[in-house]
Every structure is written in structure tokens, then in C-alpha cells.
């Protein structure tokens, strides 16, 4: 047996392609084949069986089979399988295989048997090339199962699992990972989201494997340290893996993650670039690289990385969020800037009203909690959005972000933006004629002189976003508003969805003076759930009880009740109802 056959037989026995042989591939075939070449492959059988079929029908069958050969080759080309040239005398196994199918279709069993023998002899003569050919056929058949949208979900998920096995080291089938990436981009159908999620998980599972058990075990040990927050120790473990297998992309990726948490962004960026050199379509690394750039203040590069990640993985949540925030920032910035400048100069603030989406709001001052409950100024807002679009151009709109500009009595101006992420309680959709009502409570440390804001919507056409629109708010004067009790606020909020409390009492004056928009992350940090307000009052009540001051404790409880018992049946931003929070405090 020749050396080549010995190596190939070993590969067949182990069903794997060693890493040093990863570049050995069968030649890329032509993208089309002539019908007469298929006829020659089937030999004299076409003539023998001619008396069974009309010549036109036979030509049609040959044409269909020829198209099948061309389709297979084009499909393989799209998977970008890079292969090395095989011996020039290596026959075309695809053509022989299709000729076999043609012989079986015309019931030429003698020719079919001859072609099967021919395929067996070719596989014996060229075992390594035959192995690659069979793996490629299996990859193509499996990805067809994944992309076929009329298949049941279980069939598609099973096919994804099989592709994962084919793409996992050490037995990596040529084109298997390419097939997963292709499916990730092109999957469709009613269950596309579930299938794409399974494909994403399959790719990540493949990346976590090096093909060597000891290396994989060491990587997992480093990941455990990473989860425990031992970032320095984790980098040492990942460095050990990198020294052992420098081509293992996931070791670089995990070390980049550890460097990111250590705030060593330059080191993390360097490792991310090495990951993308080894795995150019590693969407997780792309988004991680974007986060590094964002941490350095380079929003433009961050956005570039996130968009690149979406080209590979269209449903990558973190990338979609960053891209959407950038788009919204662009849409909101002119309105926010105009309102801020008008408040600072003392000019009239004129907010643009939407053509079809209208918003009305009112504000009430609330009885402020005493110093033992934190003090501050409470304002109760009610908003109602209405979609007035109608024929001939009706539109459905979904809320994406809200912005507010606060003008304090001492002259300070503070703008902030809140992104209403998909699936969050704060997001709502308005069909033509619909209305949506919600209310919320703002707590600040100083009285408000004026306030305005607006909402950006995306316009939907059959659930597909086709553009932006907005609804502006007229300027409100909170300090001149009617003062109400908690019970009165509960009555006013009937029929409105309660979205929670936003507590800005602890925002420093210097931060407000910077006139920078508060991002969604800062907004979330500033939001205090109703339970938190109750906890502050509970601490005061406990201290009073310890001092045997029952009257003071009762007063604290009453103040807290005024703050938290606004809408007893409502849900706040963190899913804790006001009634539940009040019960926690009383307990």
C-alpha cells in the first residue's frame, strides 16, 4: 500500500482529518456540466433503454440530472470549501453518482450495478478523496434539511445537531462550519428564531472544542475561574492553553474576555484581533471587540464591530441593541438639543408633533415623604398616545425610545433618554385607531420648573420596520401642578399601565450641569423600584422601634405608604407590584 493510501486509510479508521492536513481538500469542481457528459457517464445504458421511453422524455430526465449535478457543485461553491487539487486522473464522483441515479430511474439495473461497482473501485483507489466527497455530500444533504422551511422544527434542529457533530474537532468535515454560518444567515420560516438560536449554540459549542481532551479540560478550568471573577488567574490558564495550541481561537477569545473585565482594553483588543484572524466570523468576538472600543470612548468603531457581527449573525441581541441605540441617538439628538438650548436661554420650547401619532400628558405634585423616608419632590405623570393614521396611508407604530428634558427651578437642565427594548414592559405597539395609556412617578431632589419630552416610534409594514416617526410633548410646569395624595394618584392612574418610579434624588448637580444625555444604562441604575423605597422607610421604622418611638415609626410608615401605595394593582419596572412592596414594608 502506498504512503497516500496508508494515510487515507488511517483517516477513514479514525473518521478525522488531522489539523496538519486541514488544508488537503478535493478540487473544486466546475459549476455546471453538459448534458452529453452525463450521458457518457451512463454509457450504453441510455441506448439500450431507449425503447422503453420516448427520446424527449429521456432527454428531460438527463437534463434534470445534469441540473442536479450543477446544483450540487454550485452549492458546494457557496460553502467556500477550499480544497487542494487531487490527482488529475481522479474521475468525477459526482457525475458517476448522478449517472447511477439516472440508471436507477430508467430501471437499467445492469448499468446501475456497473456504476455502483465503479464507485466502489474509485473509493478503494482514492480513499482519502472519497472520504472528503462523502463528507461533503452529507454536509449538503444536512444543510438542505436545516434550510427547508416546510420541515417540522424537530427535523431542522436534528439537522443542526448533525452539522454541529460534523463541524466539531477532531472529525471536522470539510464545509460543515461554513454550512452552519450559511444557515445562520439564510434560515427562514415560522420557527426561524428557534433554528437560528440552535445554530448559534452549535457554532459556540464547536469553537469550544480543540480536538484534544487535555486542552479542552484546561480551557474549562479557566472558564470556571472567569465565572468566579478570578480574572488574573483565568488569564494565566488561558495563556497556558494558547502556548500549547496557538491556533485554538477560543483560548484567545476567553483571555480577551478576562482582560476586558480587568479593564485592560488594549490587551483585550489585541487578543480579539487574533481571534478574528483565526475565526473571521466569530460573532461573539466581534461584539466583544465593539464593547472594548466603547469602553475606550470610540463609539464609531464599536458600531462598526456590531454591524459586522450582525452580518454574520442577524439576530445577535447585543449587536442589534447597540445598532438600534445608535440609530435612535441620531433620531433623538436634534430634538433633545433644541429643548435643552431653549430651556437654558429662557426661550419658548417648541416640540414637533407627529403627523399621525399624538401624545397628551398631565402632571400632579404628590405629597412628599418626610426626611426619614428620603425626602424629595414627587411628580405623578399620566400619558396617552393615540394613533390617528387612517386610509389611504394607515400605519402601525412601535415605541423605541423616550426622552425627557428636566428644567429645575435653579436653572439647571437635565436631559435623559430611555430605550424601550423589545419585549420590555415599557414598549408598546399602536395599530391605526389604538391608544395606549401609562403613568409613572418621578422623584427629584429639587423642584421642577418645566419639563418636556417625546417618543420615537418605528413604522411597521407587515411587522417589518420601514422608517421612524415621533410624537412630541408640550411643555409642562410641574411646580404649578395640583398636589394630590397617594390615594388620589391611585384613582387618577386607573386604566393606565404603571411603569414604575424613577428616582433622581442622588444625581449630582455637577453631572446635571454637563448636559449629557443619560443613557439607558444610567437610567436603569437610577431607577429605584417601589420595594427600594419601602426598604428605606422600613429601616427608619426599625430604628424608631428600637428607640421605643412607636409614634415616629407610625409616621414613617405613613410616609412610606404615601410613596409606595400609588397604584396597588400595578407592576413596577422590576416586576414588584406596589401592593407587594407595601406588604413587604408593613411586615
Can you offer a commentary on this structure?
This protein is of the alpha+beta class. Helix content is 53%, strand content 15%. The strands form 2 sheets. It has a 5-stranded mixed beta sheet with strand order 9-1-2-6-10. The N terminus and C terminus are likely disordered.
In short:
The protein is of the alpha+beta class. It has 23 helices and ten strands.
Structural class per helix/strand content?
Answer: alpha+beta
Helix content: 40-55%
Uncertain runs with pLDDT below 50, 5 residues or more? 1-59, 69-88, 510-587
> Which strand-content bin applies to the residues?
15-25%
Mean pLDDT: 74
Shape summary: elongated
Count of discrete alpha- or pi-helical segments spanning 4 or more residues: 23
Give structural attributes.
587 residues; alpha+beta; 5-stranded mixed β-sheet; 5-stranded antiparallel β-sheet; 23 helices; 10 strands; 15% strand; elongated; disordered N terminus
Write the layout of secondary structure elements.
Blueprint: H1 3-14, H2 35-41, H3 45-48, H4 55-78, H5 93-105, H6 109-125, H7 127-147, H8 153-167, H9 176-186, H10 192-207, H11 213-228, H12 231-244, H13 249-261, H14 265-278, H15 283-295, H16 299-312, H17 317-345, E1 357-366, E2 377-387, E3 396-408, E4 413-419, E5 429-430, E6 435-444, E7 448-461, E8 464-476, E9 483-484, H18 486-492, E10 497-503, H19 509-513, H20 520-526, H21 530-546, H22 550-564, H23 578-586
Parallel strand pairs: 1-9, 6-10
Antiparallel strand pairs: 1-2, 2-6, 3-4, 3-5, 3-7, 7-8
Helix pairs in contact: 1-7, 2-5, 4-5, 5-6, 6-7, 7-8, 7-9, 8-9, 8-10, 9-10, 11-12, 12-13, 13-14, 14-15, 15-16, 16-17, 21-22, 21-23, 22-23
